[in-house]
């Protein structure tokens, strides 16, 4: 079989297959016979769901909610304050582009940059290391954000003896811990979860087995094409219908049960889980990734005395302005429930974190129109 033949078989946007999956989903919901709420915990899933209008084809009674799946959104304001303070102290702070406009309690890194702070946007932590090598007279700090997938890249650099003027300000988060918070919430009624395929490539799908057994909610690992997501929903409703709190993997072309073991070893050689604040949500036990004591020399919080007194303003946090990002990330509200959505809060001038990042639900719904009304199409 040629590669061309192989690629032709990889039809992830085949209309006939989509209709068949939609029919299977309707069949499962008819068999369940009541309303069901399920959650996905990934901004990339939300992008595909909104871009392809998948919610508009879901059967009545099936609610698909986005959870805390945007790493930028859940980075807390005081964590941004630390980076802003370092930049204003003359330290060169490097980070990914979507962190630039994320609000701290009063200012963002973009604000710091406008005020003369040293802020650099990089595409990878390796680029930040290169900047440190090119400027040995300066201290360079990488503001390391993201979930398990990007934390692995940070771990690889941390374990590779970076230059002495380089350090890491970790705001990495660990997704499984946040799923526990959602499941424990008395306000949510989530009966099953769609897990992010890219994180599961690292962790493996078996990591969710204790969670499913403990909470009684099945988990399905999914890829990011429209048919991947529809297939995950079919499998998830099948497990709910049959009362089976199990883990299923509908992304076998990338995800295995055990995951990437060398990557996991690097991750846990460099990091340990600690309790940390997720913006607008809660203190999440085991939700943050902190450099291990053996790598303390690389930890910017230990290398510098970070004084945020001059940049912090708790009263100015977005919640005080009517923003409901926290409720949106917990799955208790959608962007359309927020009075600021699309009015005073837009991508050009975001109020809350969910409008800043391309993986935030408000930004995604603003871009793609949320839940389209198919009656208005053609």
From TrEMBL:
InterPro entries for the chain: Hyd_form_HypD (IPR002780), HypD_1 (IPR042243), HypD_2_sf (IPR042244)
Listed Pfam families: HypD
Ranges in coiled-coil conformation: none
Domain of life: Bacteria
Signal peptide interval: none
Gene Ontology MF terms in the entry: 4 iron, 4 sulfur cluster binding; carbon monoxide binding; iron ion binding
UniProt keyword annotations, A-Z: Iron, Metal-binding
Presence of keyword Iron: yes
GO biological process: protein maturation
Family as reported in the entry's similarity comment: Belongs to the HypD family.
Entry protein name: Hydrogenase formation HypD protein
Organism of origin: Anaeromyxobacter dehalogenans (strain 2CP-C)
Species classification: Bacteria, Pseudomonadati, Myxococcota, Myxococcia, Myxococcales
């Amino acid at each position: 079989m040629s590669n061309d033949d192989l690629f032709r078989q990889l039809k992830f946007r085949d209309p006939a297959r989509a209709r068949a999956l939609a029919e299977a989903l309707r069949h499962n919901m008819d068999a369940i016979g009541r309303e069901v709420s399920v959650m996905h915990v990934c901004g990339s899933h939300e992008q595909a769901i909104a871009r392809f209008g998948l919610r508009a084809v879901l059967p009545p009674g099936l609610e698909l909610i986005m959870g805390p799946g945007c790493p930028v959104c859940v980075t807390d304001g005081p964590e941004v304050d630390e980076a802003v303070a370092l930049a204003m102290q003359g330290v060169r702070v490097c980070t990914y582009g979507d962190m630039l406009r994320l609000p701290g309690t009063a200012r963002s890194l973009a604000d710091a940059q406008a005020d003369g702070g040293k802020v650099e946007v990089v595409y990878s932590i390796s680029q930040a290391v290169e900047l440190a090598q090119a400027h040995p007279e300066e201290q360079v700090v990488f503001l390391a954000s993201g979930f398990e997938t990007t934390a692995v890249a940070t771990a690889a650099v941390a374990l590779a003896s970076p230059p002495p003027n380089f350090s890491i300000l970790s705001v990495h988060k660990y997704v499984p811990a946040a799923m526990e918070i959602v499941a424990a919430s008395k306000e949510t009624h989530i009966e099953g979860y769609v897990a992010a395929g890219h994180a599961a490539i690292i962790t493996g799908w078996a990591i969710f087995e204790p969670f499913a057994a403990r909470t009684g909610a099945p988990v399905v690992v999914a890829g990011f094409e429209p048919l991947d997501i529809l297939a995950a929903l079919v499998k998830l409703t099948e497990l709910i219908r049959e009362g089976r709190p199990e883990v299923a993997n509908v992304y076998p072309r990338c995800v295995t049960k055990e995951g990437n073991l060398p990557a996991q070893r690097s991750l846990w050689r460099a990091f340990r889980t600690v309790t940390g604040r997720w913006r607008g949500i809660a203190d999440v036990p085991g939700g943050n990734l902190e450099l291990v004591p053996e790598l303390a020399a690389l930890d910017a919080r230990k290398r510098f005395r970070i004084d945020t007194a001059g940049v912090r303003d708790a009263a100015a946090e977005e919640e005080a302005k009517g923003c409901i990002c926290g409720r949106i990330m917990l799955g208790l509200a959608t962007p359309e429930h927020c009075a600021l959505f699309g009015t005073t809060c837009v991508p050009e001038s975001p109020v809350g974190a969910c409008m800043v990042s391309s993986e935030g639900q408000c930004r995604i719904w603003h871009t793609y129109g949320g839940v389209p009304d198919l009656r208005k199409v053609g």
